[in-house]
Each structure stands twice: as structure tokens, then as C-alpha cells.
TrEMBL record:
UniProt-listed GO biological process terms: protein desumoylation; proteolysis
Protein's organism: Heracleum sosnowskyi
Domain Ubiquitin-like protease family profile: 1-204
Family: Belongs to the peptidase C48 family.
The keyword Protease is assigned to this record: yes
PROSITE patterns per record: ULP_PROTEASE
GO CC list: nucleus
SUPFAM superfamilies recorded: Cysteine proteinases (SSF54001)
Record GO terms (molecular function): deSUMOylase activity
The protein's name: Ubiquitin-like protease family profile domain-containing protein
Length: 252
């Protein structure tokens, strides 16, 4: 995945990240997590029981939205060319160029940009549960289902249908419940949503609890921008060591 100077300049403080930056960082996380896991215990960096992750690029939802022209129609009831397109999508986009297929993972990340605002869906594939992490919005007057109806449909109905079609014995459930995460580091600047989504994925993979994490907008978030730029330049996402995770969770 190639990046231009103009793409990289969106990592400067005060700029909104372009899709290409978020997707390139997703690729780095995918490579890192795949390298940490190996089915042969003698070659594994982590224990062979470590969690396996599926990373979707932002265009996953853009393409899948073609099957959501009517949110009242279940994915199973598509017919004709729409059905063929749906089945081709499922076959193509259940795969990762690097790492395990969707149905073989424990968790999946689906970052998406809606109206110039980045949000993240985190899916517990085995338990059929979904978390929506919105860096900006939450509260009693907030309903993700009203703001992101198509994205909700894809997570609630299309994704479980996709998993069921791939393996109907392992995935019998046709619906996933979505919980909106309230306790997490929250964006304060108007243009930092893409940075937060990148860091949410990085933190979750590293075992850092978002509930206890705190990121200051004038220091941590700016540091994250430069760290993402450095990792993209080096072609490698940094792994936070276990002692660093403990310090983060303790607020040290």
C-alpha cells in the first residue's frame, strides 16, 4: 500500500487523517499480530492460544453497503444479481491477504468513516457480540443506530449472515447485539477521530483496557500522530511490552 507525501501530511496535528493512512496502519497491525501468532508452539512469539484478529479496511463497509439499499430486507432474501454480488463479496472479503480468514478469528475490527467522522466496530466473533466505539459521541441523547443506520445493519444482520454462510455449524446465530462503549478515551479536538480509531485498535491488540486509559489531547494524541508516521515509515507497528501494558493500566 503506497502513500504519498500529501497523505502523510494529514498526520500533522490539526489535520484529519485520510482513509489511506488509517488503512495503511490497519495493514501494519495485521502484519504485527500475524507475526506474533504461530500454530507451532516452538515458533510462536505468543502462546498458541493467543487471540487472533481480523482487520477490515475502511472500504469493507462501503462495498458491503451495496446490499443495504433497503434496511428492511434481510440479507438472506436478496435475489438475482444482488444475491450473486452478495455471495461474491462474502467469498472475497472473508479473507485477509495476511492472517487468518474471518471465521477463524476471535475478534474483528471494522473501522469506518461516516460523514468525515471515524468510528470503530469491534466484534467478538465467537460470542456474537459487537462494540461500537465512537471517539466523539456518547450520552443519553446519543443513539448510534440513528446516526449510523447502514453500519448498524451490516453489523447486526449482514455480518452474522456472512459468518453463518461460511460455517453454519459454528455460527448459528443470525443476529448480533451492539453495545455502545461509553468508558474510553474520548476525542476533544474536532479532527482527531481517525487517530483515536487507530489507537483503539492498537490498544485492544496490546491488551490495554480502554476503560482505564487516558489520552491527553495536547500530548498523547500528538505523540500518537508522530508515532503512526514513524511506524508507517519503518513499515512496522511497535509492540508495547508487557511491563508497559501494566504501567498503562495502572496509570503510571
Amino acid at each position: 500500500m503506497s502513500l504519498t507525501k500529501e497523505n502523510l501530511l494529514t498526520l500533522k496535528p490539526g489535520k484529519s487523517l485520510e482513509d489511506s493512512i488509517v488503512n495503511a496502519y490497519v495493514e501494519l497491525l495485521k502484519i504485527r499480530e500475524n507475526n506474533l501468532w504461530h500454530p507451532n508452539p516452538s515458533h510462536a512469539v505468543l502462546k498458541p492460544t493467543a487471540k487472533r484478529f481480523f482487520f477490515a479496511f475502511s472500504w469493507w463497509m462501503v462495498i458491503a453497503a451495496r446490499f443495504c439499499y433497503d434496511l428492511k430486507i434481510p440479507p438472506s432474501e436478496l435475489t438475482g444479481a444482488a444475491k450473486d454480488d452478495r455471495d461474491n463479496f462474502i467469498e472475497t472479503y472473508q479473507k485477509q491477504f495476511i492472517g487468518p480468514n474471518l471465521q477463524d478469528c476471535d475478534f474483528a475490527f471494522f473501522p469506518t468513516c461516516h460523514c468525515n467522522h471515524w468510528i470503530l466496530f469491534v466484534v467478538d466473533i465467537k460470542k456474537a457480540k459487537v462494540l461500537l466505539i465512537d471517539p466523539l459521541r456518547n450520552g443519553d441523547d446519543y443513539s448510534g443506530k440513528l446516526i449510523y443506520p447502514t453500519q448498524y445493519y451490516l453489523m447486526e444482520k449482514f455480518l452474522p449472515f456472512m459468518l453463518h454462510k461460511l460455517d453454519d455449524k459454528q455460527f448459528s446465530q443470525r443476529y448480533m447485539r451492539i453495545k455502545e462503549v461509553v468508558e474510553r478515551p474520548k476525542q476533544e479536538g474536532g479532527v482527531d477521530c481517525g487517530v483515536f480509531v487507530c489507537k483503539y485498535m492498537d490498544a485492544i491488540c496490546n491488551g490495554i483496557s480502554l476503560k482505564t486509559a487516558y489520552w491527553t489531547p495536547d500530548k498523547d494524541v500528538i505523540t500518537f500522530r508522530y508515532r503512526i508516521a514513524n511506524e508507517l515509515r519503518n513499515g512496522e507497528a511497535r509492540l508495547i511490552p508487557e511491563w508497559g501494558i501494566r504501567q498503562k493500566n495502572l496509570g503510571l
